[in-house]
Amino acid sequence: QEQGLKMIQKWYYTPVRLYHITKSGSKNCWRKCGVMGTYSHIWWDCPLLNKFWESIGIEISKIMDTKVGITKAMVLVNIDDNGLEGKEERKWVNLMVVAARQVIASSWKEAEELRIDQWRGKLNRITILEYLTMKIRRMNGFKINIREDQWFRKMVNYLGRFKQFEMIKMLIRS
After folding, report:
1. From the centroid of its chain, how far is CA 39?
2. I need a surface site. Which of 21, 43, 59, 70 has the fewest CB within 10 A?
């Protein structure tokens, strides 16, 4: 997790940082909101991201069957302040936030509106990777925690409701 955040901070240059390096261009957000494009703004504070983060919070709450607030601290520095008790619950919320950050990163320097289906696509990929990891661990004799398996199946059921992700259910059945 820490390496991922370091990579984000060093790889994804914000408008302010680019301006300081090149001494040209604009310090303003490239989403054309008119605000200075700082690290915090580009990943969380931009008014054009409000709808996206709100939608992510609603979807995560549906999946978790409880209200889960997505906070600036969770997004920017991976501080787990969502109030969830279980290790697996916190892990999956973190993975869902990572998927949202991947959506933002994949549209870096673009002014396009971010959509929830982009997030589901990233979440689908992460869930498949989690499945493969569980399968490898089982093959190597590691015992899979029942809670881990339950949360994994919850993700599969959520994604399986959407036509474009029906393949995940087939993969799991095999």
Report:
1. 17
2. 21
Each residue's pLDDT tens digit, 77-117: 777 766 677 788 888 898 999 999 999 988 888 888 899 99
Q: How far, in whole angstroms, is CA 6 from its chain's centroid? A: 16
The secondary element (H helix, E strand) that includes residue 73 is helix 72-77
Reference 1, options 94, 129, 81; nearest CA is 94
pLDDT at res. 6: 63
Sign of CA dihedral 63, 64, 69, 71: negative
3-state secondary structure at position 106: helix
Question: What's phi and psi for 162, nearest 5 deg?
Answer: -105, 130
Residue 55 token pair: 């939608």
